[in-house]
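User: For a benchmark we're assembling, each entry needs the component sequences followed by a predicted structure for the full assembly. Here are entry 17's components. Please fill in the structure.
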Amino acid sequence: MNFILPGYYICKRTWKKLYYRPIHFIFSFIQPVFWLTIFGFLFEDKFSFSKGNYMDYLLPGVCAMTVLQTSAQSGILFIKDFQSQFFGRYNFTGISKTSLLFFKIFADYSRVVLQVFVLVGIGYLMGVETIFIDVVGFLKVILSTFMFTYFYASLSSFIAIKTKVSELMATFIHLFNLPIIFTSTALVPNKNLPIWIEQIAKYNPLSHLSNIIREAIIVSNFDNGNTTFSFLLLGGLMIISFFCITRYFKTINYD
Amino acid sequence: MKVSLNDIEFKYPKEEVLFKNFHVSIKKNEITCLLGQNGSGKSTILKLILGAVSASEGSVLFDNKKINNTSKKSRLIGYIPQSYSLDGEMFVKDIIPFIASLHGLEKNNIDERKAFLEHSLGLTPFFNKQIKKLSGGQKQLVNIAIGLTHNPEILLLDEPFVGLDFNVKLNLISFLKSLNKTIICVTHDIDLAERNADTIILLKKGKILEQSKPAALIKKHPYITAEIDFKEGVALNKMIFKEDIYVDFQNRRATLFCKNTSLMNEEIERFKKEHDEYIIGSRVSQNNLTSTLMGLHNISLSNLKREKKVRKKKK
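Assistant: Structure for entry 17:
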């Protein structure tokens, strides 16, 4: 069976929803812009950097947070499909569960990439002038967001498939996202974090995504840690998460 | 393609055994209607063929071959479920290629099928609309189109004509007939079954009561039905069992079933004598599939009750 064509149609379904209801896409920028505006002004003079300013530091972190938020909502379409019983349709087609999940998340990933680059543009308009993206930087953003999206969207899909309840999905988003954000280096540099949070931030995947994006798009001298380790960590999490959810997905009936 | 269920044993969790040593063979390129009361196992037969549920014993064969590969099986079977099961946010023009692609059709085949179904099922007036904006009948047509997207050899229809206008229903039936496929249809529409089915399978609690052509079934069980309507205040037993005649009394209407016209007339006369002041009107319908099936169903019910009574007496 050709996997590319069903993959294209699965993605097209998500893209069309986005096209016909762009309000969701537009609204997804309001929160990041708030973060940039409010945090940008609040902490403008709080942190000192040898090169660059806080807005330069903040923009990649907000991009990473947007990746987190969008990936966290990935399971919602599954819940809608369960509620409308559309999910049962997959039972009677030849599509494998792995392909279904892969392309469903890929559709969300394409949205994530678009969001990240639109946000970079917004950041530029808001005065972040140290943005520089070369081919390597572009590929780093593409790859790191891919890994993070597959890691976190798999978790989100697991919650959706397991519970089939939108309220629990919302609880998952609220319960996990904020702690992940505030225990990462997305908003605050490592050296300014309390020691116990600093320890958590070292292993927080959002910190690693922020660091990779920061290194890839900003010409400044921030402490981005070892980005090779960051890629390995995100890659590992992606494989484990996607593998586990696929295994689980195969054991359940679509009904 | 011929479909056969052999030696099937099946039960739903926490329920009684539905099928035990169940056999049925469905002929190639025929329309077979499954009739029977709720819980008789009609939809379960469809699910067993689909592979949506598995039998603990026995096998489902397609042209005498067992097909375990889900992908292969899904290419063979088109399923039209009772509920619409549609994504309301999608457009009609998008949902057909979407499902077709999941079946593994190539791009040119997808476009071909999309155009064919749009015109054959009369989807053009709402082809560019969002599904949530369609009427119930239009949604049902989309539901049917989805079942046909991959041009399957076997069509499983679960109450497919619910909510459709009379004209649309007739057009759809003639379209389905023209496809010349093996069609297995679960329905409560006895009239539809009588007019269109090649074979009727009458089920009761997981057992086949009858399997034959509609005309043969009527000939074999030529029941006549009579209905007598009463005014309020009439006092009758809920059910009356007599030799060769069965009377059911519900909502001030007595329904009589029997095979003998003179016996039926005698019984109606008796009713008229005994309850004349309460009778509003009566009508007799000659043997058709409805009266045959109702007669079969109710006579078997009365036999069961008789058997119970006899057992009680013996005790």
